[in-house]
Amino acid sequence: MTAAKCRLCGSDLTQTFVDLGMSPPCESYLEADQLDRGETFYPLHVRICSSCLLVQLPAYLAGEDIFSHYAYFSSYSDSWVAHAKRYVEAAVERLGLDGDSFVVEVASNDGYLLQHVRDRGIRCLGIEPAANIAEVARAKGIDTVCEFLGEVTGTEVAATHGKADLVAANNVFAHVPDIVDFAKGLRALLKDDGTATIEIPHLLRLIDDRLYDTIYHEHYSYLSLITTQRVLAEAGLTVVDVQELSTHGGSLRTWSMPTEHATPQSDRVAQVLRDEREAGLDTVAGHAGFADVVSAARDDLVEFLIAARRDGRTVAGYGAPGKGNTLLNHAGVREDLLDYTVDRSTFKQGMFLPGTHIPIHPPEKLAETRPDYILILPWNLREEITAQLEYTREWGARLVVPLPRLEVF
Ligand SMILES: [Zn+2]
């Protein structure tokens, strides 16, 4: 078999970062009548390029195949819309945008962000590949082109609509298979003195906080500032500033400009690069050891579940997020170790988790069956969910989070 090639520099990918085995696409929830059929599993084998250090999952699943996945992003939470509003306010002030400016957002979804741009009287355009979602944005009055972004599309859109002062790609960069072509698309959309912002889950946080359940097939690249700079440089873009955000367990927002017009880099760029070097992210060897950390975390979870079963205790799950599917499939947890899970999404209720076939019930199931332990799968929302589950303390339920370290409380 020929080795997969690095999507940034084209080298053979011979080094493993972590191998989570075979897993179905994490958003492929199953109906009852699908349980007796075959299910397609794909590798979750994450590599690191020994030439350019880009940590990446080969495109086992192409972008077009997971198209419908975008449907799940359509109803952003209140906190996400508020995040977008704060971003727009900060960008308008920082770049001095006004009625003469033009803003483009890539993966603009239903216009959750651009509505704030429009409300300030600034011309804007969305680029969104999912036709049904683009239609929702247009109905709200947000002009939207239905395309995947690449250099060709970016050039065409700029020729038709003009070049942009600001291009936002805040929830997409890590999720495009051809990341260099995408970055060239960003450059094609920009005026020579324009600015592009991207937001990426930060590899440093993934490693430090053991966020291996954020690894899934549509998450193609696991970026540091070191590698992000390299990708953008291929497209003629230079990072001039960076912010550390708390979203997705710890993200970076980079501000970049066409290289020939770039302003000097901020101290924050130097600081994040220093942090990454201290953590070893400037060498292949510095990335070693994560696979062992993941195995240990998996062992802790499985040991807990087996011990609970031997003691005659019952364990139910809370939540059915995509990340829970990475975790449970990797650990080989089935209904024998986790009776069921519950989710507030009526779409998921009555369905089954991909791969593990664990049933998803409405939250009321917890009060009916009174499990001894409740495993919180979206453990990043631990505080919020702990408050929601306060009523389960009545029957003495204890709550469990699997990561960053298994904890029963
Ligand atoms: Zn490479």
UniProtKB/TrEMBL annotation:
GO terms for biological process: methylation. GO terms for molecular function: methyltransferase activity. Residues 6-67 form the Methyltransferase putative zinc binding domain. The keyword Transferase applies. Residues 247-404 form the C-methyltransferase domain. Keywords: Methyltransferase, Transferase. It comes from the Bacteria. This is SAM-dependent methyltransferase. The lineage of its organism: Bacteria, Bacillati, Actinomycetota, Actinomycetes, Propionibacteriales.
